[in-house]
Structures are given as C-alpha cells and as structure tokens.
Amino acid sequence: MLKVTLKKIASTLGVSTATVSKALKDYPDISEKTKRKVKSLAVSLNYKPNSFAQSLRNQESKTIGLIIPEIVHHFFSNIINGVINAATRKGYFVIVLQSDESYESEKKQIQLLIEKNIDGILLSLSDKTVDYKHIKQIINQDVPIVLYDKISKSINCSKVIIDDKKAAFNATEYLIKTGCKKIAHIRGPLKPQTTIDRFIGYKKALEEHNIPFDKTLVYIGENLSYEDGYNLMDQIIDDHPDIDGVFASTDLVATGVLTRLKEKNIDIPEKVSIIGFSNWFLSKITSPTLSTIDQPGYEMGMKAFNLLHKEINQIKQGMPVNHEVMEISTKVIPRNSTKSI
Predict the structure, then answer these.
(1) Per residue in 29-66, pLDDT tens?
(2) CA spacing 20 to 30 A to 173: which of 1, 179, 239, 248?
(3) CATH number at residue 322
(4) Are 92 and 150 members of one domain?
C-alpha cells in the first residue's frame, strides 16, 4: 500500500498541499469547513505525518542517545525506564547503547550517535575512561551531553549525581552505630569519581567516630561483581578474623560477601554486619535481606532527560546553555544484614 501524503489529500480535495498542511495544524487563516474536510479525509485514509521530514524542517531528530555501562545492572535498568518515560512524554525516541565499561566502545558509540543525527546524549562514563577528548569534541560541536552517575569533574557539562561521599559516610556510620568497630571496605579501582567519593566517605565516617583508618581493611574488586565479593571475603577473614562489618560499593559485591559468610557458618549480623549500595531488587530477597543505600535510578533517569531536553531547546533557540549539577538524595535502607541501632 502506498503511503498517504499531503499531496494525495490535496489532489483528492482539489486544494494546495499548503492548505492541507495548515488545515491539519489548525491555522486560523483556513476556514472551519476546509479544516473539517481535510481532517476527515486524513482520518479515512489513515494519514500519518512524515516525522523524518518534519525533523529536517525543524532541524531536530527528536531522538537522543543513552549510553550505559551495563544493561544487566538493576540501577541502570531503572535509569533506562526513567529516561524513556520522560522522553516519551516529550515525543522523543531513545537509542540505548551499552559501553560494557570499555573506553574504546564508549568512543565508538558516541560517534555512532552523532552519525544518527541525535539531538543530545546522556552518558555514564565507563570505568576505563580516563581521557575525555571524545566527549569535549562533541560538546564543542554544540551537541548537548548530560553526564549521570559516573561523571568527571573536568568535563564542562551538566550532570545528574548523588552525593557519593555523603551516602558512603551514612552507610559506614550506620554500621558504627550498630556497634561495628572493625569495618572492611570493598571498592573498585580508583578511576570513576563514584569509587573515589565512596572511599572518601568511608574514611570520613571512621575519622568522625574516632576509629583509626587501616588501609589493610580496604580491598579492591576489579569488576565490582558478585564473584569479587565472594572471593575477597575469604581474604578478609584470613587477614582479619575479628572483622565485624563490611561496607561494599555495590549490592552485587555485598551479596557475594553475604553468600560466602553463610557458607562459612559465620552469623549475619551478630558476628559480621553487611551493607551494600544501590538498593537492587536482589537486596530484598537475599537471606538475610541486605541493608543498603537507596540510589534512585528512575528519578535520576527522568531528571537527566529533562535537563538534556532543556539544553536542546536552549541551543535550538540560539540561547546560551546554562550547565547545571543536579543532586539526587539518598538514604540508608536498614534490613536484616545489620543489627538495629
């Protein structure tokens, strides 16, 4: 079946294509009688506007790119939902790509999105990204980029973040208030700002509660995976048999810790308390359930898109872009892997 066009409607009614276009858009210089005829025929022929042609006329594609490090991560799946729901309300399509924590992949995906003529990009940096030339080049081409979650302070653009220092401080302090005195911290490599800030928050909480910082209590999980938590727990127990608390940088790591402690018949939380980070769905179904920091991904996704949409409109109207840093609040979610305060 041939696609119904404005020209087809105009030819059938014996009017110009301009008249048909104006009638469909309710222009005041078109009579009500003509509008009714045009709209009635458009409905009967199942006319659909050519969104691609419209985007060319408006110099916008109504499409944005969303690059995430990992699709399987519960937090990032919430980000995707938040972005897509907010974008749909504004008539935008979302292209979702995964960097798989790879710097080279991140560069290729940004270039792919630019070739697709997207209107803007939402990006959470990969753990391997330490050079930001590819991002700064795009910003210099007036393509708006909003960083979310994993960001760099050296990139001059808008950002949607949580206060990782404060969140990690609160997690560690919660363990201290429940009676923990020797708390291990499992973190990732010190590359993304989130890892750095969570480590700083952990140290700050110890300091404020007069607990000496011991670098031998800090362990590095290269992938921040379940396996990292599971395997490192053996080393932690061997190094520090009197350990009584673990703050893990992600819920996945914390779940690995919890599983290994249970296999060793070490009581949770009486002997060792555990707190994670993000409030994944799995934190509600572990046994015991996992205390964690609530990191609201859905809200972050919605606010990231709204900030990007604002900048897209500013550029479209020739206005100066005002970069913003938007902070989402977090909170401790106490469950059964920690004692009560």
Answers:
(1) 889 989 888 888 888 887 776 544 554 444 568 999 99
(2) 239
(3) 3.40.50.2300
(4) yes
Tokens for 314?
A: 């500013």
In sequence order, what are the residues at sequence separation of 6 or more whose Cβ sits closer than 8 angstroms to the Cβ of residue 297?
74, 75, 76, 77, 78, 79, 81, 82, 278
Count CB-CB contacts under 10 A for residue 274.
29
Whether residue 126 is found in the same domain as residue 40? no
Are 156 and 305 within one domain? Answer: yes
Direct distance between the N- and C-terminal alpha carbons of the chain, in angstroms, rounded to an integer: 69
The DSSP symbol for 157 reads: S
Say if 195 falls within a structural domain: yes
For strand 331-333 and strand 292-294, is the pairing parallel, antiparallel, or unpaired?
antiparallel
Is the pLDDT score of 130 beyond 90? no
The pair of three-digit structure tokens given for residue 147, joined into one six-digit string: 């960083």
Looking at residue 56, its pLDDT comes to: 43
Domain hosting residue 115, numbered range: 58-161+297-330
Global model pTM greater than 0.85 = no
Check whether residue 260 and residue 196 sit in a common domain. Answer: yes
Residues 9 and 43 sit within 8 Å (Cβ to Cβ): no
CA distance 204 to 80: 33
Q: Per the structure, how many domains does the chain have? A: 3
335 in a domain, yes or no?
A: no
Whether residues 112 and 200 share a domain: the answer is no
Local structure of residue 291 (DSSP, 8 states): B
Higher pLDDT, 74 or 231: 231
Residues 216 and 242 in one domain: yes
Structure tokens at 334: 């106490």
Domain assignment present for residue 338? The answer is no
pLDDT score at 3: 63
**Distant-in-sequence, close-in-space partners of 189: CB < 8 Å, separation ≥ 6:** 127, 195, 220, 222
**Residue indicated by tokens 């800030």:** 197
Structure tokens at 255: 């779940």
